[in-house]
Amino acid sequence: MTLNNDVIREVAAALILVPLTLSMQSAGMAILIVWQRAYFARHTFHFGLFRCGELTVRCTTALLILHTLQILLWTAFYRWKCFPDLERAFYFSATSYSTVGYGDVVLPPNWRLLGPIESITGVLMCGLSASLVFALVTRLVGHEDRFESSRDPAQLTVTEPGV
């Protein structure tokens, strides 16, 4: 079995694009983790429903922006090597990264291995993002539980059935 130049080019492109994508994801998540830790350290009070929702929306929005930047990285490559216009390159990248893959826009035959590679990468990056949102929600629940369990039991009123 011999490797032709097209396969070598595709593998070389993947060996650049995948680590760049992972680096962007890791750096973005590290920034969000530092921000979340600082936020929890500064705010030691009961957050409440609105504040918990706001934090979740902020984190999720930041992750969506991060994923868009990663899609744009792949878009830039596709525009450079595969597609004549930016719209088609972005559309293909977004559908591949998200694993939707409609198939109405396809890569040229000599670059077609990159689509599945971007899809696998996108799934992994989305999984990392989901784990960060899960960690945030877990921390918010723990934070709120701390305040619920520390409330003075004498202030709580318990009504018994039939009383």
Can you describe this structure?
This protein is mainly alpha-helical and 163 residues long. It has one domain (5-147). It has 4 helices and no strands. It has helices spanning 5-42, 48-81, 86-97, 114-150. Helix 1 (5-42) runs antiparallel to helix 2, helix 2 packs antiparallel against helix 4 (114-150) and helix 3 crosses helix 4 (114-150). The model has no long low-confidence stretch (mean pLDDT 89).
Which features does this protein show?
mainly alpha, elongated, 0% strand
Short description:
The chain is an all-alpha fold and 163 residues long.
Question: What's the helix and strand layout?
Answer:
Elements: H1 5-42, H2 48-81, H3 86-97, H4 114-150
The oligomeric state of the chains shown is single chain
Task: From the alpha carbons, calculate the radius of gyration and give it in angstroms.
Answer: 23 Å
The chain-level structural class is: mainly alpha
Largest sheet: none
> What portion of residues is helical?
over 70%
H and E string:
HHHH
- Give the beta-strand count: 0
Terminus-to-terminus distance = 84 Å
Give the uncertain stretches in residue-range form: none
Helix segment tally: 4
As for the number of domains, it is 1
Identify the overall geometry.
Answer: elongated
Strand content: under 5%
Mean pLDDT: 89
